[in-house]
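Example 9 (inverse folding). The structure is encoded as follows.
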């Protein structure tokens, strides 16, 4: 397992984390796990990914009342807690990491895999750059983009900090590499991460 190439990516919303992960995947030939993790986690408890789409890196509660019972023994009067969902998702992340190379986006994957040999990266960018990225991608106004960015960042921060028992989302000391994607662009950032990882011995030669 120590020979596997595992990269975890934390990211500010609009900083291009997913695009950078996709470039890493292309350049390294390593599969990216993002929303697919939710699908796998859902399958573990007998439900499809649609039941997890609104819980992606959010701290809340999902009522399963109208869906009946499941293998955890939850009935129509019970809730499946965030903690149980996080446990299932974490087990999936660890299983994937134990089986081969992988790139994980978000979902506190650096914390989940903290006892494994991983390259933990955090992607950021100036607010004005992120506003341009989000507004262009979603065809919304700059004001709408900024509100969405702040909401998404808070959601990701709350989620990460809750499950890692700290206040470390985006804190440089919590990662191997923190990088501003606006400097080199998405592909250039991916290339820099690979160069850094190889020089540090995380990604081999």
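The amino acid assigned to each position is listed next.
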């Amino acid at each position: 397992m120590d020979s596997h190439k595992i990269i975890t990516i934390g990211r500010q919303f609009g900083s291009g984390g997913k695009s950078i992960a996709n470039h890493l995947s292309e350049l390294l030939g390593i599969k990216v796990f993002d929303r697919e993790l939710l699908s796998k986690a859902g399958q573990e408890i007998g439900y499809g990914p649609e039941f997890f789409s609104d819980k992606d890196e959010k701290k809340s509660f999902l009522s399963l009342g109208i869906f009946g019972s499941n293998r955890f023994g939850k009935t129509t009067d019970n809730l499946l807690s965030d903690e149980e969902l996080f446990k299932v998702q974490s087990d999936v992340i660890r299983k994937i990491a134990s089986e081969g190379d992988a790139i994980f986006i978000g979902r506190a994957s650096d914390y989940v895999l903290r006892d494994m040999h991983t390259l933990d990266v955090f992607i950021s960018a100036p607010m004005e750059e992120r506003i341009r990225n989000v507004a262009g991608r979603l065809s919304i106004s700059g004001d709408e983009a900024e509100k969405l960015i702040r909401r998404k960042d808070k959601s990701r921060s709350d989620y990460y900090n809750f499950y890692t028992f700290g206040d470390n989302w985006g804190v440089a000391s919590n990662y191997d590499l923190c990088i501003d994607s606006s400097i080199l662009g998405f592909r250039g950032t991916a290339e820099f991460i690979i160069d850094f990882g190889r020089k540090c011995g995380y990604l081999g030669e």
